[in-house]
Every structure is written in C-alpha cells, then in structure tokens.
Amino acid sequence: MTTKQLIEQIQKKKTFLCIGLDVDLNKIPQHLLKEEDPIFAFNKAIIDATHHLCVAYKPNTAFYEAYGIKGWKSLEKTIKYLNEKYPEIFTIADAKRGDIGNTSTMYAKAFFEDLAFDSVTVAPYMGKDSVEPFLAFKDKHTIMLALTSNAGAFDFQTKTVDGKELYKQVLETSKTWTNAENLMYVVGATKAEYFADIRKIIPNSFLLVPGVGAQGGNLQDVCKYGMTDNVGLLINSSRGIIYASQNEDFAEAAAKSAEILQQEMKAILE
Ligand SMILES: O=c1ccn([C@@H]2O[C@H](COP(=O)(O)O)[C@@H](O)[C@H]2O)c(=O)[nH]1
C-alpha cells in the first residue's frame, strides 16, 4: 500500500487507529481453545468486528513465535485473511528486525514478499546498511524505532551523543539514507512532550504510536504535538481493545473499545 492510499483511508474512515493483535492464549475466551486454530479464530472475530473502526492492524510477531510453528501458521493465516478480505487495511509486522545487510534482505523478503505485510518494524542500532535493504522494497514501509514507549527508552535513546540526543541523531541520519521516503518511525504515546521536537526533524513522516490504553499514553496530547496536515499518525492500542472482555462477547466488547478511540479521532479530524 502506498502512503497516499493510507492517507485516503484515514480521511474516508475518519480514524487513524491501529489495532494490535497480540494474542495470548491465557487471555482469550476459553471456548475458543476448542477451535482448530484458536489464535486465528480470535483474530478473525476481532478483525470482522473492528475493521470499519481502524486503518491498520499490527500483530506483534513475538505473540506468534512463542507458539512455534503453530503460532507462525496462525500469523500467516491472519495476514492472508486481512489481505484477501480487507485489502484497504494497512498491515504492520511488529518484529523489530535488523542485522547485517544480507541478513536484513532475508528478513525483508520474509515479511514483505512471503507474508506480504505492508510494513515491518526495525531497530536502528546496526545502522544504515542494516536498514537500507528493507527500504529497497517499493510501496513497502520500514518503521524504525525512534523513541520507544517504555521506561528503558531513557537508558540510551535520550542520552546525548555528539551534542544531540541519540533519538534525534537516529531521525536526522536516517533521512539521508537511500529510499528514506519509505521510512516511518515508532514514537511512544507515553513520550508526548517530545513530539514537537520530533516534528521539527521529520515534519511529514508517519509515526506509529504505541502506548495509548494499557500503557497510559494520552491520545489528545499526541495529536496536539504530533499531527501533520496528512495526519501522519497511526495510534496503536493492543490489550486495551482486544481484551476488553474475556467472555463470549469479546469481539463486540473490542469493537466498543475501538469505537471510543475512533470517535475521539473523528472529533479531532473534524
Ligand atoms: O515503543 C514501543 C514499541 C512497540 N510497542 C509494542 O506495541 C504494542 C503495545 O501494546 P499495548 O497492549 O497497547 O500496550 C505491543 O505489541 C508492544 O510490543 C510498544 O508498546 N512500545
């Protein structure tokens, strides 16, 4: 999907919500455990109930890898279902990959070609040659960690290196890379006070913003300082939506929870 198509979807659906599909078998309704593929059954029900309220889904691959081959098959089925039934939805593999160049190319093939995700998250720590192989894929998006939502973000990301905070160095340097137009960035909703400075460096790039809901980030604050003319934000909530209920009504409860955020977004967009 192109960035233009993503912006069109945001404007049409009046939402920039991304729903995180972080499936934990201990948290899903127990009746689903009787299904042949409980993870896919859960995701399918959540997607069917919420697709009109969001523009993106983000399975975090850890929640699938934890269940071995079965988990990976559930991830495959989920992305295939999304691509076939809801092709207008932007898909994010939250895998936080990155390695020496030839290995990064294989990661990129896995997520962009084999699984056919629109985007994948990567870590910037190994630098230019670890990220550029992802950027080489046309109409695919590489979402690089910039300033993360967790407390550990202050261990390295905000430390001063050569007179500038490391996360700012990451943003500035990455702008010079080949195919940098295919970059988006992760900035945590819990770091709302940093968005104004971040926008000075990357005024137009899309930001994937996790941390609303279960981690306590505030949507209004993020939008106040992070929003661009083209919105430029994908706000993610995972647990706050998909585990709104652990009973048989889980899909409807997830939709209600998603609708609360979507209505807030709609009001901001109007
Ligand atoms: O800085 C980051 C980067 C990634 N994440 C991921 O986003 C979701 C958040 O889940 P919630 O349940 O809404 O808290 C999860 O997959 C994280 O691994 C993040 O939280 N912060």
From TrEMBL:
EC id: 4.1.1.23
Location of the active site: 96
Catalytic activity of the protein: orotidine 5'-phosphate + H(+) = UMP + CO2
Pathway info: Pyrimidine metabolism; UMP biosynthesis via de novo pathway; UMP from orotate: step 2/2
Root EC class: lyase
Gene3D superfamilies for the chain: Aldolase class I
Keywords, comma-separated and alphabetical: Decarboxylase, Lyase, Pyrimidine biosynthesis
GO molecular function: orotidine-5'-phosphate decarboxylase activity
Pfam families assigned to the protein according to its UniProt record, in alphabetical order: OMPdecase
Domain Orotidine 5'-phosphate decarboxylase residue range list: 16-254
Record GO biological process: 'de novo' pyrimidine nucleobase biosynthetic process; 'de novo' UMP biosynthetic process
SUPFAM superfamilies: Ribulose-phoshate binding barrel
Record family assignment: Belongs to the OMP decarboxylase family. Type 2 subfamily.
UniProt cross-references to HAMAP family, sorted A to Z: OMPdecase_type2
Protein name according to UniProt: Orotidine 5'-phosphate decarboxylase
Biological source species: Algibacter lectus
Taxonomy of the source species: Bacteria, Pseudomonadati, Bacteroidota, Flavobacteriia, Flavobacteriales
